[in-house]
Design a protein that fits this description.
The chain has 486 residues and is of the alpha/beta class. The protein contains 14 helices and 19 strands. A seven-stranded mixed beta sheet has the order 13-15-16-11-10-17-18, with helices on both faces. Helix 14 links the parallel strand 17 and strand 18. Helix 2 runs antiparallel to helix 4, helix 3 runs antiparallel to helix 6 and helix 9 runs parallel beside helix 10. It is globular and about 75 Å long.
């Protein structure tokens, strides 16, 4: 039996009692229970599924303080930040409950019969949605609540009528177990089958879960390497399944000359804040910044970043990968390490800053577009706004792209940038910053590969629920002739 340890991000030492990783037999048992529970769960009235989601939200809110403390011990994300994230998580649970009660997204559509032959004439057609079945969810390490055990993937799948088996994140195993137990107790207390939500642990359990023939979809938030490996398993099965992977990205920022001239000092301060939010461990972090060469802007950015206190990353492993990643990019010819990155004895790290010229970026973009998950950014110094196209043409799919421009002078340029960036990003922000993702009915969090594995769908907002249902048309049936059949 393999054990999974919780490692302190503050000391690098083992904390809490180890937990046993799940075996393949454990995965089989969890999926079998999920299938059994799903028969009733998928047929529940929407208002009842909504009541279940609210019961979980209430239970999480009631334990908010202790949950935030436990999460901080395993992630070093800070109590205040984590309390806010818990509020976001319970907001999501209640948002999907409201969506179920409104019936808007899962509404049944009817084409009444029309006399005549096709294509004009047709029988009565009733289009409705059915749940896919058990969903495997892999939560994020950097958002242990909002994108974790009870995060957007889990709640949207439950709202859709699917049961969920979560693969616990190895970075916060104690929190994962605590959240699972809390949610299952809340479900039982509210009169629901707790087996609609289960969890397994360990890398082997994760791959076995995606490969299991009864699992009908997967959802993942994490690294490109791990997400792509699971995507390949999901799509190479004898019966391939959809795998909704959100894999992070190098999110570009374009700042025009006019924007620099009008508010350069303000932009440097705002960029530093966005770049270091969550210690740079956000998939929406501004990563590569294209800006006309302006020493005053760089000086302001250096000053703002130097004022940000060091802090621990999610884990010692995260810190090691970050330092190695930054060192790799900094070693590329033509890159200047304006603010060096180094781990401190207490495992903390301060923000870093790299710069290069547009010419060097064009020549070495493959080496430079390496995501470093932490508080560092790469500034690409351009000759003018006219250089933006050369850099933009080399970018991969991104979750979000940002433009800072002046409406009075940059309208044509901004229109061009929005059109071009819409081809590579799932969200384009104008005169704002990409961090701080609102949870709304029409939010979109996704993008062309490698940002995500399913460019048509979002993992944030109400539409996330539609990933886990499929349409079915029932022909020649009416409630009058067949009472209760539909």
């Amino acid at each position: 039996m393999r054990l999974l340890n919780s490692i302190s991000p503050f000391t690098g030492e083992v904390q809490f009692e180890p937990v046993a990783e799940s075996s393949v037999a454990d995965v089989d048992t969890a999926v079998a229970r999920s299938l059994t529970a799903g028969k009733a769960w998928s047929r529940l009235e929407f208002k009842e599924r909504a009541r279940a989601l609210r019961a979980i939200a209430d239970a999480v809110d009631d334990d908010s303080a202790s949950l935030a403390e436990l999460a901080h011990q395993e992630t070093a994300l800070g109590i205040d930040r984590l309390v806010g994230e818990i509020a976001r998580t319970t907001f999501q649970l209640r948002l999907f409950a409201e969506e179920l009660e409104s019936g808007r997204l899962l509404a049944t559509d009817i084409d009444e019969a029309l006399a005549g032959l096709p294509p004009v004439g047709h029988p009565r057609l009733v289009r409705r949605y059915v749940a896919l079945g058990p969903v495997a969810v892999f939560g994020a390490g950097n958002f242990p609540f909002a994108f974790g055990q009870l995060g957007g993937d889990t709640v949207s799948a439950l709202a859709a009528g699917c049961t969920v088996v979560v693969k616990d994140h190895p970075g916060h195993p104690q929190l994962a177990m605590t959240l699972s137990a809390l949610a299952r107790t809340a479900l039982t207390s509210a009169g629901f089958d707790a087996d609609v939500l289960q969890n397994v642990r360990g890398m082997g359990a994760g791959t076995a879960l995606v490969a299991h023939p009864s699992v009908q979809a997967g959802a993942f938030t994490g690294s490109q390497k791990a997400g792509r490996a699971l995507f390949d398993i999901a799509t190479s099965r004898p019966n391939p399944i959809p795998f909704y992977g959100e894999l992070g990205s190098m999110n570009p920022v374009f700042i025009t000359q006019a924007a620099l001239a009008s508010r350069g000092e303000e932009l440097s301060t705002e960029l530093a804040t966005s770049l270091t939010m969550g210690r740079g461990q956000l998939c929406t972090k501004p990563s590569v910044i294209f800006v006309p060469d302006d020493q005053a802007f760089i000086d302001g950015l250096v000053q703002a970043l130097s004022g940000v206190s060091p802090g621990q990353l999610l884990s010692p492993t995260s810190l090691e990968r970050y330092v190695q990643g930054v060192a790799g990019v900094a070693s590329v010819s033509g890159v200047t390490e304006v603010i060096p990155t180094a781990a401190k004895p207490d495992l903390s790290v301060a923000p870093g800053l790299l710069t290069t010229t547009l010419e060097n970026f064009v020549e070495r973009s493959q080496e430079l577009l390496e995501e470093c998950f932490g508080p560092v950014g790469l500034v690409v110094l351009c000759g003018s706004d006219a250089d933006f196209d050369a850099g933009m043409s080399l970018l991969e799919g991104a979750l979000v792209a940002t433009i800072h421009a002046v409406p009075e002078t940059d309208s044509d340029l901004a229109r061009h940038l929005v059109e071009e960036l819409s081809n590579i990003a799932g969200r384009v922000v104008v005169n704002g910053w990409p961090t701080g993702l609102a949870v709304t009915p029409w939010q979109h969090h996704g993008g062309p590969y490698p940002a995500s594995t399913s460019v048509l769908h979002t993992s944030v907002g109400s539409q996330a629920m539609m990933r886990f249902v499929r349409p079915v048309v029932i022909q020649n049936v009416s409630d009058e002739q067949w009472p209760g059949l539909l």
